[in-house]
User: Which sequence fits this backbone?
């Protein structure tokens, strides 16, 4: 087997605030192979976005990566300083954000911003850079790209803006794209257009994709594997079939039960009681214990480690659901 | 349909008839002056809602579905009495409220209550939760200052909040709890109809499930009717009895939820249903209708959907499709149903 594009091992990112240490990400491990799509699913506060920012090296004080390792194509990037990270960011790693207005400067034309991104890493003429930008815009399905290149961000609709952001991410054919809820703010038909585009591009270019979302249904049709995060940790990880059809962690099972379309019409939804704990005040044992229907004394005292089961999926639970109970 | 809804299903609670809402930005002084010198500045009018009919019966859940800019929120606000329609009539229990004055509208204004999407911007951050919920019933004489505490405590319990939290401010609650405060506030004046404008859209999945369950419990216990405005078809399918699908200010298809999900007729409805991400562990290719929803300032002529419609013909860009009634209380506005698109 070839080496995975991205390996994250035991990553811990903590924020040192006046109220105390917030363990936003606390021991996360996963890997993504070339051309693979990994869906990272979690609710707000689960640490899914901070994981993405940590990989990009975009954690600012009071946040800090306190331990763990992030390897991009085998090379350790956690210890790199800002200057070294700049060479990687945009070139080998790219990120797409929820709000494309975050990536685009509202007072600069698209061409200024895109050409700058090309020239930042490649020593080419401006003409060559412009051609590459037009190609990138055409690739993400923007009609008449040469004319649209000289427009300002506000002249694009929300869906088109997100396409521009994706085009910028693709400029250098990165090894890995991290997409943080890029379709959450979009309408269903537009979301589906973007998903179609991304799916096609990843297959064409062999780019690995880390798709961060709160919406299980979006990654269900897109991802190869899913990692479910809760309170700063991955609680379950496995193939899409495994996670959705035979979830072994009670949280995953509860999350699926909360989705209206997974329930009979008009019936009460199988809700998870309570709400997500504040990452500043996590219980000593399993973070899900207070909301879990299967918890025991062991769960209150000891945090479960994540361990692979017979089928190769990983689950962090003292009492994982058996196949029968899950179904 | 639940049994509580069955009993009262004949009573029509609210009906809007051929309502339209236009928002016009009139010319400012500079633009008028420029026009004197031959400039061509014109007033910009947004046709947010265009000749829409809608009725909600007692105890019924009606969903209003569409993408952003389709006018669903504006229509919801007309039903809630927040906006007055530019054209058309609103009936509350058979009474035309568009011609009534303040005192006469009392029943309608209290009977239809709205729950907004973002509880943080609809709750006053400087007022304690207990007062937010208790103010309206006190003003309207449903309780007095002495009884307000107990009255609000009861409402808090009903929506699943601890009455001890009455002295807290909105920022001290989580997102799900704030949504519950918004619901308690709406319930405080004993409404018959709740208008929920994307009320669960901003919530996490597990919290969203709790709030949806609360809506279903309230319907069962209080016999409430809902106008449920949402872009989330999964939620709508689960909770509603009937749905209306809007596109650019018009209702293009309506009918019982189950029938529409099983057999959508309008090409837009079909596209919308195809594009809903499903919880199936299967790689799928996301195929999609082209283009985006056009601007409501200059809507395309004829059928608003024709520039994106895979089945459009010359007739679609010429004339507006009529509302065709189908079996089982369904309606669709499409030339294909009238016979031909040529």
Assistant:
């Amino acid at each position: 087997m070839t080496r995975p594009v991205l390996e994250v091992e035991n990553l811990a990112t903590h924020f040192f605030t006046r109220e105390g240490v917030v363990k936003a990400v606390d021991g996360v491990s996963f890997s993504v192979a070339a051309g693979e799509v990994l869906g990272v699913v979690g609710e707000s506060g689960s640490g899914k976005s901070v994981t993405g920012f940590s990989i990009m090296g975009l954690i600012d004080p009071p946040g800090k990566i306190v331990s763990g390792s992030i390897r991009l194509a085998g090379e350790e990037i956690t210890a790199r300083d800002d200057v070294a990270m700049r060479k990687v960011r945009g070139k080998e790693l790219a990120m797409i954000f929820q709000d494309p207005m975050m990536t685009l400067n509202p007072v600069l034309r698209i061409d200024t911003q895109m050409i700058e991104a090309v020239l930042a890493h490649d020593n080419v003429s401006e003409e060559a850079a412009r051609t590459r930008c037009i190609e990138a815009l055409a690739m993400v399905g923007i009609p008449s790209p040469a004319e649209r290149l000289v427009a300002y961000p506000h002249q694009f609709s929300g869906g088109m803006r997100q396409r521009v952001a994706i085009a910028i991410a693709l400029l250098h054919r990165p090894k890995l794209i991290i997409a943080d809820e890029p379709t959450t703010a979009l309408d269903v038909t537009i979301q589906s257009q973007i998903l179609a585009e991304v799916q096609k591009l990843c297959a064409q270019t062999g780019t690995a994709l880390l798709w961060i979302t709160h919406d299980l249904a979006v990654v269900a049709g897109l991802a190869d594997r899913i990692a479910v995060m809760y309170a700063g940790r991955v609680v379950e990880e496995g193939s899409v079939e495994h996670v959705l059809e035979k979830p072994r962690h009670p949280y995953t099972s509860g999350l699926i039960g909360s989705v209206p379309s997974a329930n009979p019409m008009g019936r009460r939804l199988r809700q998870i009681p309570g709400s997500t704990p504040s990452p500043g005040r996590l219980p000593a044992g399993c973070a899900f214990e207070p909301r879990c229907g299967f918890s025991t004394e062991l769960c209150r005292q000891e945090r479960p480690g994540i361990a692979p089961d017979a089928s190769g999926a990983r689950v962090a639970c003292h009492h994982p659901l058996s196949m029968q109970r899950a179904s | 349909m639940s049994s509580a809804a069955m009993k009262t299903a004949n009573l029509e609670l609210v009906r809007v008839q051929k309502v339209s809402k236009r928002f016009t930005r009139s010319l400012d002084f500079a633009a008028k002056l420029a026009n004197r010198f031959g400039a061509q500045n014109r007033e910009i009018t947004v046709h947010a809602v265009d000749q829409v009919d809608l009725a909600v019966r007692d105890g019924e859940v009606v969903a209003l579905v569409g993408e952003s800019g389709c006018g669903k929120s504006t229509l919801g606000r007309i039903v809630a009495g927040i906006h007055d329609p530019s054209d058309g009539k609103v009936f509350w229990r058979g009474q035309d409220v568009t011609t009534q004055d303040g005192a006469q509208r009392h029943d309608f204004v209290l009977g239809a209550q709205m729950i907004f999407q973002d509880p943080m911007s609809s709750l006053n951050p400087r007022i304690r939760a207990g007062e937010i919920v208790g103010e309206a019933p006190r003003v309207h004489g449903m309780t007095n200052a002495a009884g307000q505490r107990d009255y609000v405590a009861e409402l808090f319990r009903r929506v699943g909040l601890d009455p001890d939290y009455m002295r807290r401010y909105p920022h001290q609650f989580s997102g799900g709890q704030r949504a519950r405060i918004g619901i308690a506030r709406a319930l405080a004046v004993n409404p018959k109809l709740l208008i929920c404008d994307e009320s669960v859209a901003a919530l996490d999945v597990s919290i969203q499930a709790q709030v949806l369950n609360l809506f279903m419990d309230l319907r069962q216990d209080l016999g409430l009717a809902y106008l449920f405005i949402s872009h989330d078809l999964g939620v709508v399918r689960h909770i509603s009895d009937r749905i209306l699908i809007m596109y650019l200010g018009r209702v293009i298809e309506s009918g019982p939820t189950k029938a529409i999900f099983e057999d959508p007729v309008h090409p837009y409805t079909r596209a919308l249903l195809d594009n809903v991400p499903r919880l199936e562990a299967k790689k799928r290719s996301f195929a999609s209708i082209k283009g985006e929803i056009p601007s409501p300032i200059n809507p395309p002529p004829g059928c608003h959907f024709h520039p994106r419609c895979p089945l459009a013909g010359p007739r679609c860009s010429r004339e507006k499709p009529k509302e065709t009634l189908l079996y089982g209380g369904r309606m669709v506005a499409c030339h294909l149903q009238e016979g031909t698109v040529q």
Notes: The first strand of chain A starts at residue 6 and ends at 17. Chain A has 13 helices and twelve strands.
